[in-house]
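Table S5 (text form). Sequence records supplied for joint modeling of the two-component complex.
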Amino acid sequence: MKQEISLTVNGEDHTLIVTSRTQLAELLRNELDLTGTHLGCEQGVCGACTVLIDGKPARSCITFAGSCHGIKVETIEGFQNDDVMDRLKEAFSKHHALQCGFCTPGMLATARDIVERFTSPDTEKIRYELSGNLCRCTGYVGIVAAIADVIEQQIALGISLSAPTIDVPEQKSGFAPFEPSSTTRAKPANITLQKSGKVSANGNQTIVERGFSIDHKPEVVWQHFRDLKSLGKCVPGAVIDNVDNDRFEGHVEVRFGPIKADFRGSGTHTNNDMNKSGSVIGRGADKGGQSNLEGQLNYIIGKGETPESSKIDVEFKFEIQGMLAQFNRPELVTGLVDYILEQFVQNCNSVLSGNEIKPGQGISAFALVVAIVRAKIATWFKSN
Amino acid sequence: MKPVSFEYNTPASLSLTTDLLVRTKKDAKLISGGQSLGPMLNLRLARPELLIDISKLSELKEIGEDKSKVIIGASITHSTIEDGGVVEPISGMLRYVASRIAYRAVRNKGTIGGSLAHADPAADWVTTMMALSAVIKTRTSDGIIRKIPMHDFMLGAYRTALKHDEIISSIEIPKYSKKACWGYHKICRKVGEFANAIGAIVVDPVQKYCIIACGAVGGAPLILQDLSESVARSAAVPDILEIVLALETSEQQFDAVKMQQLAVSVQRAIEKAVCK
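The corresponding structure-token record, covering 660 residues in total, follows.
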């Protein structure tokens, strides 16, 4: 979708027609030929694209044109008659605070903000505040020295801060023992599903083992599990399109917070009637997200605590490649797996009791995959 | 990478926003500061058809207080809180936490309501609000206002009690007494990254209140009820084994490294509150 926006860049007014999804950085570089703003990670992590929006540093790679109407932007090409920026540029040169220069436009935007907010050339503080801008050649020593230098110059010149940072009040600590009230306002979250099993990793593969019970006889549950179409219905978000003997084709829509993926693929389904065990092996690709998923689900159905119930042990093994891949953080999977299992068990119980499945839970067994994935994203950016 | 094509809508009021959420047939997503959603859009992990910008709604920018609570509008940014722009429910805690979220460039845009609605287990506000027993105030398209206690609000990783046409309007945090103490400790491999472990404690001997919360777990932050009570009674730092035991009773499974990180973060948070 295209839309008209008006914004001020380096003091000049512009009216542009751009697509809503255009990143501010792209808009600056491609529409206004202001190529001093650099795009690095495009995930808000590296800081190369940092510009001042309405006087405050912000990431121009995760600011989209749709939100840019009426804003004032200052890029490295700007800062005309800006004494602080002039001092910083000179100090960067003097202290050898750049080599290749790729990070420098973002560094300077952040550096200017540091100089404006802090009265002390405390290098530890500078390093902390600079942590959102990555430089791969200087080792930061020169950059930190340049910023400290400018803060000292400002102090020497008696320049007061335009945005004074108030010191955080001292933290109070130490208290006398007391009997906590029984009406303490918080309570632990409810745990609805009895859990057993474990989560582990083997190379790039994540393995989730879980056991749960179902209120139907093992024979009935087995008939349900060996029928792929019936079983597939119970996996939230999954649709089995074709079944040809032990081969199948299908897709599964994964929704996890704002994350959405649609894995389409095929696999095999094999069963052993002797010991009521089986496995589903599948592989699929999420075209829109450029990720691949390979997984295996093993299950075995045994007697439950009563003759009318069954115990089901499942083992998921899976591996993801592509955009969603490269990371593994099993603890994040735990909470999600139990949520999924809860829905899966509910769905199985519904089907076996002859009821309809509640539609659109929007999360699937494969969503746990995405949970791991999120942890990968976490390594790239910190956002809140 | 670049995001998929989406429409961008900026409704002029909260009721127009909730109406749009009900009316639209498109796959819509609210965006406030966009500091979590932005990267997900660029990575095409999120592929909405419509973004609804709520960052400019004045109804979400309320800052206030009464005798018993502090009110923070949903679209108040982390940097506003860091700079002391809201009243502290307990001396200095919100500012401390806010100043350690990501980076200043992110804090200038990211909002407290957005962070809570996003419900990332490793985010700072979810654990902080749990320890502070905050209440999340919301509004739906038919004008129904709900006040959801934080412990009922976050259901799991990226899952909240919000309905599809429901928006967080503000966060209400009870005020604690002048004698109240707090501690907050997070472990990150690099400054500004998602935390590996978060420990938070709020103790108020006057209100007989003590809550220890542990974040960056598999889902909603854990409230360590028994440990909270024992710390209130002892006013001492428990040893690491006692904390590990408390975490084990949560029924979540952590590997040895994660368990150690969580226990240490909780212990260090308690140290800050307890040590005179």
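Note: Chain B has eleven helices and 14 strands.
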